[in-house]
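Work Package 3 (structural annotation) set out to generate three-dimensional models for the target panel prioritized at the project kickoff. During this period the team completed the workflow that converts sequence records into C-alpha cells, so that structures can be stored uniformly alongside our sequence database. As a representative example, we reproduce one entry of 248 residues exactly as it appears in the project archive.
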Amino acid sequence: MSWTDNNGNTHDLDYVIERGGSGAKIGKPVAFIETAWRRYTKHSRNKAQEIQGALVPLLETYKNDAPLIGAILAGVFTDGALTQLRSLGFAVVYFPYESVIEAFNRAHLDANFDEGTADAEFSRKIRAWEGLGRAQRMRVAKALLEINGDQIQGFMDKLKRAVTRRIQSVRIIPLHGSAVQCSSIEEAIAFVEKYSEQSLPQPVVKYEVQVLYTNGDRIEGQFGDKRDAIQFLGAYREERIAEVRKPR
C-alpha cells in the first residue's frame, strides 16, 4: 500500500508497521523502514539520499504520530552516507559487505564478486546458492545476525520502544494559566471542554497540548480555538483504547 506525503507524492515502502490498519485502510504509522543493498561506495550516497527523500517527507506528514524512521542497509556504504541518515534521526542497522561474505562462507559458499567478475562465474555462484537446502540457508542467515549482533540489537531496541510505547500523560497549558497534567486522553478532553474562558480577566489566546509517551516521544500542538484542541486530542483516543484492551 502506498503512502502519500503532504506534497501529494506517493511512496511505496519496504516495511510499514501501523496501528489500526488493514488491507483496505491505512492506520496510524508506527515505523517506516527501507532496505537497500549497494556493492560500491559510488552508489551509497545516492541511495542514502533516496531513502531520506522517501521517509523524511512522510515523517513530517505524520508528525502527530511520531513514527520511527529506519534503514536496513547491506553491502558497501560510506561513513558519510550512514552519518547522514543517523543525523536525521534514522535508526540504522548496517551489514558490511565483509560480514555478508563471511556469513556465506559458513555455508561453504564464495559470494565475493566485483566489477571484474565474469557473468558465467556470477551465474555459478547463484546456482550454488539456489542449490542449498533450507538448513544451510538458515545457517547463512543466523551467521549474518550473529556477526552483526550488536547493531541489530540496537536497532531492535529502538523499534521495540516505538511499537510498545504508550501515552504516559497529557499536558494542557492555557496561555494565561498554569500547566495541568492529565493521566488520560479522556481527562484531557474533559478539562478543555469544561475550562471556563469567560471567568478570567483576559481571553485565552491559545491552548498548548503536549502528548507524552513512555519512550520519551513528545507530540505538541498549539491551538487558538478550543474545538481544534479537542479535535487534536480526539485523534489519540484509539491509542488509549488499545492500552486497555490488552490480549490475555
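The beta strands are 3-4, 10-11, 15-19, 28-38, 68-75, 91-96, 167-174, 180-182, 207-213, 218-223.
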